[in-house]
Amino acid sequence: MTAATRAPSAQAWAEAFAEASNTDPEIEAHGKYFTCSWLLDADERSYVVQVQSGRVTHVTVDSGPLDVPYDFAIRAGVETWRGFGEPMPAPMFHGIWAASFRRDMRLEGQVLVLMQNLRCITRQIELLRVVGTPV
Which Gene3D superfamilies does the entry link to (predicted)? Predict the structure, then answer.
């Protein structure tokens, strides 16, 4: 795989992210009960990732606040998300807990759903090193 690069458009990134997630062996192994919708909010853009039994069924780009429901949100600024997309992230850009303690990342909504799916969500965030960052 190549180093992370920025996607040419929001929709192209959404498609690449869904493909990477749906073909990832780790998510396939752990994702049988991975069913939720979550918001990746990057200030300039937002994405609602809908997952059913470990497969991304749809990624909505820049939905309105009431258009697509989600269980929880992971919100961070552009620079934080770009840090996650580096092939070897700097300290505090390697995981959502580190970024929420030391960077501007916020976890909101039904955190229980996040915790129930933590390994798969963590793996999806790690896939930013493959598909690039959403902003």
Answer: SCP2 sterol-binding domain
